[in-house]
Amino acid sequence: MRNMWVIFKKELFRVLTDKRLVLTVFILPGLSIFLIYSIMGEVIGSQFEEDRVYDHAIYAENMPESLEASLEEVLTFHAIEGDYDRETLENMVREEELELALFFEEDFEDKIEAYQTGTDIPQLVVYYNQGHQHSSTAHNRFMQVMNVYHESIIRDRLEDPDDYHPYQLSSENFMDERTVAARGIAMLMPMLVIIFLFVGAMSIGPDAIAGEKERGTIATLLVTPTRRRDIALGKVSSIAVLSLMSALSSFAGILLSLPRLMQFGDEMPDIGIYRLVDFFAIFAVLLTTVVFIVSLIAIISTYAKTIKEANMLIMPFYFVAMIVGILNSFGAEPNHSLWVHFFPIYAPINALSGILMFEYSPVNLVITLLMNLVYSAIFVYILNKMFDNEKVMFTR
Amino acid sequence: MDLEVKNLRKTFNLSRKQRKIERTNEKRRVAVKGLSFEAKRGEIYGLLGPNGAGKTTTLRCISTLIKPDEGDVFVDGMSVLNNSMGVRKNIAFLTNELKLDDFFTPNYLYDYFSRLHGIDEATAEKRKKELFKRFGVDKFSEVKVSDLSSGMKQKTSIAISLVHDPDFIIFDEPTNGLDVLTAKTVVDYLRDLRNAGKAIIVSTHILSVVEKLCDRVGIIIDGELKASGTLAEVKARDKSQDLENLFFTLVEESGGAKRA
Ligand SMILES: Nc1ncnc2c1ncn2[C@@H]1O[C@H](COP(=O)(O)OP(=O)(O)OP(=O)(O)O)[C@@H](O)[C@H]1O
Ligand SMILES: [Mg+2]
């Protein structure tokens, strides 16, 4: 066991004192996630802001004053004055020089007022350009105004205003704030957890094992009186710790960018809805899952002759894990049947969803944790055999 | 009890890639065919043979890196098959195939391997000073291996493989790739180790190394020992008492060096 710690410490020292590795494994993942999400939040934010302050150019012919006033309430705009024919205006809208052109028939409001069944109805022609952001916004707002206007006219025309409502609607929402927030978290987190853990392990595992084979340094270790079990455990435990650190960096990136990402969308999920036991459960799942993933990657890296080969062989497993994660985030409800908790990867993702949505059975959780450990133990045992197998270690 | 190789046999499966490279159809290759010899404390045994003769394979079996198919090796009475851990504690295996991790300094690596061998710090520190001085590693002990020249790397490797002061030293091609000066340091050190009562086995295809260094020699060709004994005994098998002549005759007799 002593040699396991010697190897563990050396592996940690190896990675943590290498500036390049520290940068690529611990800083870049978190930083890039933080930057990407922050920029996304910024872009969405500035869109809102720009729509609010932008002064839209609108040409309006015979526009009723009441409508102009209503539009002013929802949109910043200035009216274009002057004599233009429709063709010029059409071109201006096309060329994005004008956001909106409105042609109300003369005496638009009076004609509506004077309407009798069978008489002509007044015309309204609208020019806009859906492909132009500001024109599209202006058009949307204008249509909102017109919808309200439309409704009020219909209501006026009915003899009894109550006829306007074919039924009376009263709906009451008994939503639990907690579940809504939880659902959002439960949809994303488990998938991200698995992906981050995999990525972390993939950035360290192949180099630590296949790399040693490729560079020929593993034989130097194998001629020392170190039990193969100690080598296997030393490698797996050190890679697990480093992967966990790398995954935590990614999480930090997400957590730090959440406020910016959420500022214009839904409410920021409040982590305070979870109890301490929930956090313990999450941590237990994380810890056993990282050991599982790392020992899987360690086996593949030991089998492979080069780092490149190891990375290639890991890919299919990574994809499977990713697909399971993505399916889970669509599937929403955690699966409660006992037997699914025996499946690696699926069980921890499912368990995490369950914990995050306040619906998990302790029995299923324990099975998940135990199975993670059992699989890992089997993998470490195989790994131990592999380190003692010259065909694996020295085949040309 | 010293080091005893008994009826050693080792066969490899040839991978498809290897068959292609060597342009052969054989699926298996017998690299060592029932080899027996003995190396005693206080002497240097030389395993002389052309490329592909099975020298490295034999030395790897002795060092427990690979397992013999048949036969056994006894190091101080411990079998490599049944007590590989015991053997590893008392043996050093040196070759330029055993690499050092580029990222670390000789100093760090020395401490690391000392710890793996379970040597207490005070002893390790004292021995490190001696070894580093002897091989001139002290001058670059804080430089990363990646920045060392190949001679410096080889010297570091030698120092590090001897952290545990083993009684048995197995050295595959000891002077391969070393300049004359470094080679001399190594040869001198091996002589000192012999005089200190260690058993040393070196492999080489260079006749002068054998002449200068070895007390006893075995000539291995195609996995078989063709001649063995003290340097004088072996030389006596040739009319002109010339090792080189004998070597060529033996190689020729077995159909030349088939595999380069
Ligand atoms: N791991 C292996 N897989 C397959 N074949 C091998 C393996 N190791 C050695 N061989 C084959 O066994 C034979 C003996 O090889 P070995 O390396 O022992 O020779 P050697 O005497 O050390 O030669 P050299 O002077 O070239 O180092 C060669 O034909 C080699 O191709
Ligand atoms: Mg060789």
| SSE pattern of chain A, N- to C-terminal | HHEHEHEHEHHHHHHHHH
Question: How many helical elements of chain A?
Answer: 14
Q: What's the Cα radius of gyration of chain A?
A: 32 Å
Quote the beta fraction of chain B. Answer: 25-35%
Largest interface: A-B, 26 and 32 residues
**Helix-residue proportion of chain A:** 55-70%
Ions, cofactors and other bound molecules? adenosine-5'-triphosphate, magnesium ion
Topology, number of strands of chain A: 4
| Side-by-side strand order of the widest sheet of chain B | 6-7-8-3-9-10
What Rg of chain B do the Cα atoms give? 19 Å
What structural category characterises the helix and strand content of chain B?
alpha/beta
Give the tally of structural domains of chain A: 2
Low-confidence stretches of chain B: none
Shape of chain A: elongated
- Please, what is the average pLDDT of chain B? 90
Mean pLDDT over the full residue set of chain A: 88
| Terminal Cα span of chain A | 31 Å
Describe this protein's structure.
The complex is a heterodimer of chains A (396) and B (260). The two termini of chain A are 31 Å apart. Chain A has a four-stranded mixed beta sheet with strand order 2-1-3-4. Helices cover 69% and strands 5% of the residues of chain A. Chain A has two domains: 20-49 and 180-393, no CATH class; 54-175, D-Maltodextrin-Binding Protein, domain 2. Chain A is built from 14 helices and four strands. Chain A is mostly helical and 396 residues long. The mean pLDDT of chain A is 88. Chain B has 260 residues and is α/β, with parallel strands linked by helices. Chain B is 37% helix and 25% strand. Chain B contains ten helices and ten strands. Chain B has helices spanning 16-21, 55-62, 84-89, 106-116, 121-134, 150-161, 180-195, 207-213, 231-235, 243-253, and strands at 3-13, 28-39, 43-48, 70-75, 78-79, 91-94, 168-172, 199-204, 216-221, 224-230. In chain B, a hairpin with a 2-residue loop joins strand 9 (216-221) and strand 10. In chain B, helix 4 (106-116) crosses helix 5 and helix 4 packs parallel to helix 6 (150-161). The longest helix of chain B has 16 residues, at 180-195. The relative contact order of chain B is 0.17. The mean pLDDT of chain B is 90. Classes of the chains: A mainly alpha (396), B alpha/beta (260). At the A-B interface, helix 1, helix 8 and helix 14 of A face helix 3, strand 6 and helix 4 of B. The structure holds adenosine-5'-triphosphate and magnesium ion.
